[in-house]
Specification:
Two copies of one chain form a homodimer. The first copy, chain A, is mostly helical. Helix content of chain A is 73%, strand content 1%. In chain A, strands 1-2 form a two-stranded antiparallel sheet.
Chain lengths: 339, 339
């Protein structure tokens, strides 16, 4: 836990685990961003307008960073990972655009969503454009293996999103069903982003598999923490909204745990709020109180730690290096940002 | 005009141009349909449920038929065109699903749309799934050239859909702007479907280009006639709805022509109905009357004839054959179905 950075006021801020990784791939990310800006252009000006709205909105660019870092960790010295990292971000961005339409979200990372500004119709279509453009970029790269990885991941993401749609409002959802959803909708692209880095480096199979496992487990940990943060006052400090999942009736692990551990009265509360979407003033606070009572948030983070440990262990077969430490610290940060 | 089939009662129905083409590729289409059914499967049962709703809804399967016919015309005797024709249909189906969400349509080909039955959210996500699945199928085929053709076409379709969104409700749209929209949203996939058939057959470049030109011009003619039919009582006979474009304020060529040729009073009518979407009982009938007064429907079909002639001339460098005649007759039918 020596890498945990205090975010409390007063102390000078040391770079957190993710920041160290970011600095390490900084040059590459500048070029990735240039490719992203270049390839989202179109004579149809609404496309770059809307795309830049979401792409400039200040996401962490975590997935393309992973592609660069994975290639780097395998000693890659070429240029292909730059364009492929941009592909990964385009696929992610297309997914976000469609997600926000599906969720009817108005805010993402504290900013108005593209669908709120430009309308659902444009968001659906520009998502399709970015997705197609990602495939054009991959085709230009010319590797059928990379195309196979990312087209498979894209299909799995869509399956995960549909699964999530089905479990929404269903308080009987099991922890395993929830894990299936986040493994597909989130972890599949993390895994693919890392795997592609190993593949362009022509790394030996065990290394490629290790990178895939690192990404997959990091992705699960990342989503678990995100879902915990949606009920945590920590999110307000990070400039994110709290209670979005609650409002939409999404069934995430904190809910699964609180529902199962709760009394019959409590379960009636969860059903009213999340199945019937009959929500009243103060309900979110009650939900947070119930989660506290049943340590649902803490245990969600505890589950995330489990996947974080698996991610770090997956990397163990790589020789020690500054970059390996940075990748491990990024896992740590992903989890500790919850505090 | 000898191929024009009377659809009036009394006479025995001779097969129309499209029907002759369909019979010609019948065996192949059975296998394409089997691939479509197989590849739309998923453990997430809502996906095949929704996909089969739209795929079984009885579309003409015109695009995959074109891939088969194009390969056949170039003497292809392999199997690759079967899977690639299924890809083309998946891309088309994904586009339809997203289109119906964007247009907020309730009916397609006289049936309830997927979004009306399953909701917009599922339609967006299953569209994404089918699109990803199409790319997986292409990757399994293994041709980067085919991947380049269909990923490019997909990006162009998305651009066309965004252009259409922008021109919707804009009565000042020019004929050329309208042509840009339909060239992208419709003709690009017709062209790609035909081109892919030539590419798998390893046909010489002039033949591949001829097939592309045939598909592109046929696609434009097809869309022009579709847009004319939306204002024509002929559509009611075909079991299709009339006036959908009018209700949505879509600016198609019949509108462009009637608006430009109309008096200032008439333009005020078009602006009220299509820009302000302030529509009253009887407005559709007035619109049809104005189109009749300015021969806007007939002239739209006349424009379609121009592109149909280009499509047929593109095929002229192929030696005469039964299949070539069927492809020419399909163009004829595409246009003459307006009557």
């Amino acid at each position: 836990m020596s890498n945990v950075v205090s975010l409390k006021g007063g102390e000078p801020e040391k770079p957190n685990g993710l920041e160290i990784l970011r600095r390490r791939v900084d040059d590459g990310m500048d070029r990735v961003n240039a490719v992203i800006l270049d390839k989202m252009q179109s004579d149809v000006v609404l496309i770059p307008q809307l795309a830049s709205h979401i792409i400039a909105a200040g996401g962490k660019r975590l997935r393309p960073m992973l592609t660069l870092a994975a290639a780097d960790l395998c000693g890659y010295e070429g240029e292909r990972h730059i364009h492929l990292a941009a592909c990964v971000e385009f696929i992610h961005t297309a997914t976000l655009l469609h997600d926000d339409v599906v969720d009817e979200s108005d805010l993402r990372r504290g900013n108005a969503t593209a669908n709120a500004v430009f309308g659902n119709q444009a968001s659906v279509l520009v998502g399709d454009f970015l997705f197609s453009r990602a495939f054009e970029l991959m085709v230009a790269d010319g590797s059928l293996e990379v195309l196979a990885i990312l087209s498979r991941a894209s299909a799995i993401i869509a399956e995960g999103e549909v699964m999530q749609l089905i479990t929404t409002n269903d308080t009987e959802t099991t922890e395993d069903a929830y894990l299936d959803v986040i493994s597909s909708k989130t972890a599949a692209l993390f895994a693919a982003a890392c795997r592609v880095g190993g593949v362009v480096a022509e790394a030996p199979k065990p290394q490629v598999e290790a990178l895939d496992a690192y990404g997959r487990n990091l992705g699960i940990a990342f989503q678990l923490v995100d879902d915990a943060l949606d009920y945590s006052s920590r999110n307000a400090q990070l400039g994110k909204s709290v209670g979005d999942d609650f409002k939409e009736g999404k069934i995430t692990l904190p809910v699964v745990l609180a529902f199962r551990r709760g009394s019959e009265d409590e379960r009636r509360f969860w059903r009213r709020c999340l199945e019937d979407l009959d929500q009243r003033d103060g309900d979110l606070e009650v939900a947070q109180e119930l989660m506290g009572r049943h340590t649902a948030i803490d245990d969600t983070i505890e589950r995330a730690r489990h996947y974080g440990a698996k991610a770090r262990d997956a990397l163990e077969l790589f020789p020690d290096s500054e970059l390996k430490t940075a990748l491990n610290d990024a896992v740590q940060f992903t989890i500790e940002r919850a505090y």
